[in-house]
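Key idea: predict the complex, not the pieces.
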Amino acid sequence: MEERGISKQELKSFLKAQKQRDLTYQKVLSSMCTYPHEIAVYAHNLFLDSNLGDSGLFPGTKEIEDELIRMIGALLGNENAHGYISTGGTESNIQAIRAIRNRKRKEGLQQMNIIVPKTAHFSFDKIEDILSLEVKKAGLDDELRVDVNLVEELIDDNTISIVGIAGTTEFGQIDPITELADIAHNNDIFLHVDAAFGGFVIPFLDAEYQFDFSLDAVSSISVDPHKMGLSTIPAGCILFRDESYLADLAVNTPYLTTNEQCSLIGTRSGAPVAATYAVLKYLGRNGLRAIVDECMQQTRMLVRGAKAMGIYPVIEPVMNVVTLLFPDVDRVAKALEARGWRVSTTRAPKALRVVIMPHVTEETIEMFLNDLENAK
Ligand code: 0PR
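Result:
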């Protein structure tokens, strides 16, 4: 840092120039984030100085968070769920597994493992490291859902949790949560559902999927407002069916306005909390459903167009993620990048991955299909 500050004008023009170097979301088809809703931006800015790490100073924000937890809980089958607004799916996943890890440690268990699908997000690799437990990966069925027989085979006396994914990062597939719930119930183990992406999609799909607290054995759910909830970054949400799991996460905070804290981070912005509340209140279920409908329309349009070119998806899309098979995926991805698109690729099977977020319009898909025709 320099001794003397620079002028506001100089600084602002620098910041604007840097911001211009960032991509806009327009041709970004690789991201699970999107433009936040304008009402979210308004609320975010209003609560910029709010810190829920010391919530006694911000009772207005805290009340918003409590109401928001009830709203998201109700959307996911339990308005009496307990939790908090986290920084995203990674923190939520860590906290869910940390809660059950802490409980089992208190009960005297030392070697512990959890079972996740092979498709699990890489946050579970961080969990293996941070929480010092083994993360076993279960194989998939033909439709890239976790194979429940393989999950069952991996369970042993040290298994403290199984994990199902409602909206896998790479393929947008939904694991058979009902069957995982039966396994969790029969073996008396914790079931965490990672609905970071799917939590704001699945309730609004035409097809019905059971994946949430309406299944008795679901212990916790991770769901991200900063993905399909159109909120500002960083906004995740961790919900537990049972309040006692929050106690397993609590540490004493003797000199703050509250006696204990359950979040992973200390200082915690109230801005994305207010933003999430604002967007959910403003849009309501109808507004969210309309957004999901749009994304699914664009999804079907892309698949139809691709099939007309003789290009087929790995699975028929369940939600707004399309994965397309090519003999030479990397070359196609590069050619699309040269035309300004940002796409990603999946690992196994290797395919081109396109996430149809709310910023993707019919025109976007038309342009993309045109470029795909030339790139393939
Ligand atoms: N669980 C699932 C199912 C996810 O898809 C993700 C992130 C997480 C957990 C972790 O969430 P946070 O990143 O909020 O901690 N899925 C995206 C991914 O890794 C996140 C993302 C978003 C990546 C935008 C890139 C990007 O441009 O692909």
